[in-house]
Design brief:
alpha+beta, seven-stranded antiparallel beta sheet, 7 helices, four-stranded antiparallel beta sheet
Amino acid sequence: MGAFQEHFSIHAASALARQHEFGRLLGERSWGVDIDAGTVTYGDDLTFPIQLLGTEAYDDSTWLWAWANAESALPPGLLRLVAEIREYGNKHGIDELYDASVPLAKVHGHLMSMLCGGIAGGLPYYRGPYEGGALFFLVLETPPEVTAPLSPERIPTIAMEVIQTFDVNHRVMVENFLLQQGYEVDRLQKEIAGIRPDGSSCLAKFDDQGRLAGIQFELKPRR
């Protein structure tokens, strides 16, 4: 598994959970970006600051990072986080994060944006389609429910959805998911146990190949 997949595994589950919550918030609202203002507006009642990530171009099937899009003369203030993400990629040897463009067959915009949102501290993203491609950006200052820790019963659902949808290291994904969701974890050979300060607990079990076999959770504090 390459560097991108390993780091994606760290953030995949919490990123997916954020996207579900963000989608519920937006519903069927239309969207519009004001580059000069550095904001996105959904419908007529929701406006948030943004940070640009990049674009998918369908004619040549490539991802282009916003910092590499010199022709568009994008405001430097909208490139602050993507510049930090580029440095993160350089530091950790993740080519996809610091190469100016990447074939979509290798990594598409949703994967890029999920990882970027995690690296940036837990931000949702949005894909804005346009003729011939799509714009991806991080959305800041969303309501607390978008990034709040999940209820314990949703932990297994999200974890299983991740392994059914994405190529991830199961143990890395589960351990970091629990940590990001406020659990203290205990690492065992074929299990990872987690407990929150409120007493809710979680136990993930793995097979001999390190694949997630299932997650159990308990809502009541242990006696």
